[in-house]
Specification:
Arc Repressor Mutant, subunit A; single chain; alpha+beta; 3-stranded antiparallel sheet
């Protein structure tokens, strides 16, 4: 998915930090020279996919949405390394 790398890099580098969509679009614009309207749609699609997969939380703040990376810890079984 286009722009996913830039969006994920920004959000995952700052877990728990709230980002407005415009800040995310501006970050992506630093890496791609395209019309801002095209970037906004692409970033919106990435954010929707991340929200659907529970990687981010969307917080309503008045008229604007804020996007927050959800830090997850994944363990396998008991969290112990397998004994060989």
């Amino acid at each position: 998915m286009r722009y996913a790398t830039e969006v994920i890099d920004l959000l995952s580098a700052h877990p728990g930090h709230e980002f407005k969509k415009q800040v995310i679009v501006n970050h992506v614009a630093e890496h791609h020279r395209k019309d801002k309207r095209i970037l906004r749609v692409g970033v919106w699609r990435v954010l929707k996919m991340l929200e659907a997969s529970a990687q981010i939380e969307v917080m309503d703040k008045g008229q604007a949405h804020h996007y927050v990376w959800v830090a997850k810890t994944i363990t396998s079984g008991s969290g112990q390394y397998p004994q060989n």
